[in-house]
Recover the amino acids of this structure.
């Protein structure tokens, strides 16, 4: 038996080195699809798994449901056999390497919700066999791979490092960023043992030339959190500076433009209406939760979270102030056009978007609101704001602008006619410096927020 298990791991190594291993990618979203595409481009047999049968059908029909991600390689792969998509998780047994790319959200109490990871691990365990490599890519706290995923897989009677291999390699996706694709972003890899790390390096080497091995899965998990906490803290800092400079009559955007001319010791971060996306609003809380079990305080990280979480309220307060000063009316009963529902420019992704929180606050304060987003025709169902599900956007035209008492720019998409906004909007509250950066401000009715 021992020899058979050893032979299975040796066969896995041979297939990984030869590029003949079949790769299974679980979770066909913003992380899993680009990863699957990268393997398919290198003619590595790949199977995509997802619990949503609609995604499987859309892929089969050649439909792109992610918009900012080029899914053409999957369509081509379906045609020539390099790729297949399925909701049948029993087919995981045919895969040599299995990559977990599922969501890791927060609970309403801001604690880690690993239900997707745990369910996926149980699905893998149902058909786990000797000679497989399992890699968790989902962002999570240090210790997850070792303390959550491994026990579920080991409960099958197989043992990590002896029968199958287990690793962690954090996703580093940036939706809408054409410059930094999977193949161009260095890949951090930590294994549950040296054999697992070596196997994971062999797995990713054909698709990512720059590999960064680290000593353990815990370290690799900490790398990802550190990257996103760095951004969260610095965005919080510039948001706080914005509030301070605002009182002093200083334009934070002008300050940043001048400061970033320094060729060393400074990196520009920009203020906004709050944090959005699948990483920055969530990941810091994974560390603060984990740190509590070690009796460690995370005051700096938590303060950054408080500042960023408060920004949507500040934006609405600035909007209310602008309406009072410039139009002599209250927020209650006013009609507001929100420009941009996505969490960042030029994508259709609304996960954790501050625009959704702003919509909620406006409704609670008695305002009527509409939204326009060239990439979001209607709001999808979200965990935090299910009441917004299906709310359709409105066209951006002179008629829409005329019936609204103010325009609130939440996302600075390029595909927006800001000249039209400047000509027809009564009041513009600009959280992204969208007008000024295009030479359309300052104007008396434009308020920075």
């Amino acid at each position: 038996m021992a020899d058979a298990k050893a032979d299975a791991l040796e066969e896995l190594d041979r297939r990984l080195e030869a590029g003949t291993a079949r790769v299974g990618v679980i979770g066909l979203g913003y992380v899993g699809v680009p990863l699957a595409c990268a393997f398919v481009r290198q003619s590595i047999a790949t199977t995509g798994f997802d619990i949503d049968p609609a995604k499987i059908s859309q892929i089969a029909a050649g439909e792109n449901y992610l918009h900012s991600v080029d899914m053409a390689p999957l369509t081509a792969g379906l045609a020539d056999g390099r790729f297949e998509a399925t909701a049948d998780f029993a087919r995981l047994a045919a895969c040599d390497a299995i990559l977990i790319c599922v969501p890791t959200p927060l609970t309403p109490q801001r604690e880690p919700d690993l239900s997707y990871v745990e369910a996926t691990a149980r699905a893998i365990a149902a058909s786990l066999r000797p000679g497989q490599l399992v890699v968790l890519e989902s962002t999570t706290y240090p210790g997850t791979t070792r303390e959550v995923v491994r026990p579920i897989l080991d409960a099958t009677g197989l043992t990590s490092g002896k029968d199958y291999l287990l690793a962690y390699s954090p996703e580093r996706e940036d939706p809408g960023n054409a410059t930094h694709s999977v193949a161009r972003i260095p890949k951090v890899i930590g294994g549950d043992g040296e054999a697992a790390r070596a196997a994971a390096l062999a797995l990713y080497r054909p698709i990512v030339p720059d590999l960064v091995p680290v000593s353990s899965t815990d370290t690799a998990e900490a790398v990802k959190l550190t990257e996103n906490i760095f951004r969260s803290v610095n965005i919080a800092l510039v948001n706080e500076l914005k509030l301070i400079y605002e009182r002093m009559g200083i334009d934070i955007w002008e300050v940043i433009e001048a400061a970033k001319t320094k060729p060393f010791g400074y990196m520009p971060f920009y203020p906004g209406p709050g944090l959005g996306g699948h990483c920055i609003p969530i990941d810091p809380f994974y560390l603060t939760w984990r740190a509590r079990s070690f009796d460690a305080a995370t005051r700096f990280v938590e303060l950054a979270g408080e500042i960023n979480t408060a920004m949507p309220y500040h934006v609405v307060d600035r909007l209310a102030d602008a309406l009072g000063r410039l139009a002599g009316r209250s927020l209650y009963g006013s009609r507001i056009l929100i420009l941009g529902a996505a969490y960042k420019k030029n994508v259709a992704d609304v996960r954790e978007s501050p625009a959704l929180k702003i919509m909620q606050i406006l409704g609670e304060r008695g305002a009527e609101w509409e939204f326009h987003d060239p990439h979001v025709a209607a709001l999808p169902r979200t965990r935090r704001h299910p009441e917004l599900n299906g709310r359709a956007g409105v066209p951006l035209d002179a008629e829409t602008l005329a019936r609204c008492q103010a325009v609130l720019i939440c996302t600075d998409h390029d595909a927006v006619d800001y000249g039209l906004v400047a000509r027809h909007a009564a009041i513009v509250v600009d959280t992204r410096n969208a007008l000024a950066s295009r030479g359309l401000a300052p104007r008396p009715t434009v308020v920075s927020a």
